[in-house]
Amino acid sequence: MTDMPEEAGIGLRRAQIFREIIRSGSTRRASKVLRITQSAVSQQLKLFEEHVGEKLFIRDRRGLIPTTRAVEIYNRIDRYFDTLGHIEREIFGSFAVARNSLTIAAPHIVCLSLLPKLVAELERTDPSLEFYVRAQSYDQIAQLVLTGEADVGLSRLPLDERFFEWQSIMASRSVCLLRPDHALAGKKFLTAEDVASERMITLDREFSSNLMVMNSFAHKGHTPFVNVRTDAVGFSAAFAAYGSGITVVNDFIARQCEVFNLKTIPFRPGVVHEYVVFWRRGSDKVSRQAALIGAIVDYAKRCA
C-alpha cells in the first residue's frame, strides 16, 4: 500500500476516497479496496471535511456512520462516477444492453435458505430476471442498499426512515436452538437461569442482538460461558447441531436453520425483532419494479 500525493480542493481522487468510505463503512476497509494506507485515507477524509466545512461522519463501535449531509454529497458524487463509468465504457466500445436484474442483500443464513426458494419462484414468473445475492451482516445490508449497491435488502428494524422505505414481513421473538437430545430439550421455555451453566454459541460482541442476550444474563447475575463466536447471522445453528452448545437467536432466523434439525424453544425474557424487506427511499429502480418488490414481500411473508 502507498501514501498519496497532496491534491488541491476536493479533487477526483479525494472524492473517490470519500465515496469508498461511505460504501465500506470504515477507513480501514476503504484503504484495502483502494490499496493505499489507512492513514492516507484518514488524512484525505479530514481534508475533504475541511473543504466541505463540516464533519460528515459519526464514529461508533460499528464504524463510521454518515450524516445526512454526507449521504447527500455521496449521492451526487456517486452519480458523477456513474457518468464517468458510462463514458469510459463508451470509449472502449462497450455499449451494454440494459438487463432485467435485481441485487438482493440479506443475512448469510437467509441467502442459504429463504432466498434460493424466492429466486426459484420469481424465475418461474419471469425467466429473464438476473439476480445478484449479497450475504452480509445487518449493518452492511443497510450500507449496500443506502449506496445503491443492492436494490433491496432483507433485514430487521430499526432502520433510518430518512433513507429507507420498507414493508414488514414478520415479528420474531427470541428462541433457543439446541440438539433434540439435549437435557433441556423437553422444556416449554428456557430462561437465563436455565442456560447460564451451558456452553453458548453467539454472534460477535458488536452485534446488538448479542448484547441484548448477554444483558438478559447480566440482569439475572449470570455470566454465560461462550465457547464459540461467529460474525455470520444464523451460522451458530451449525455449531449447535454438532453439540458445541446452545444458541439464542430469533424465530425468523430459527426457521432458516431447519436443515440442522434442532429443537426450537422460546427464550425468556425475550426480545421482539421486526423483519422487513426494504429499499432506498426514492429509488427509481424500485419504483419501476414495484410489482416485483411486491411479489418479494408477499413470498417472504408466506415463507419466512
Automatic annotation (TrEMBL):
Keyword set includes DNA-binding: yes
GO terms classed as biological process: positive regulation of gene expression
Ranges of residues in domain HTH lysR-type: 10-67
This protein's UniProt keywords: DNA-binding, Transcription, Transcription regulation
GO molecular function: DNA-binding transcription factor activity; sequence-specific DNA binding
Keyword Oxidoreductase: no
InterPro entries: LysR_HTH_N (IPR000847), LysR_subst-bd (IPR005119), WH-like_DNA-bd_sf (IPR036388), WH_DNA-bd_sf (IPR036390)
Entry's family note: Belongs to the LysR transcriptional regulatory family.
Name the record gives this protein: LysR family transcriptional regulator
Organismal lineage: Bacteria, Pseudomonadati, Pseudomonadota, Alphaproteobacteria, Hyphomicrobiales
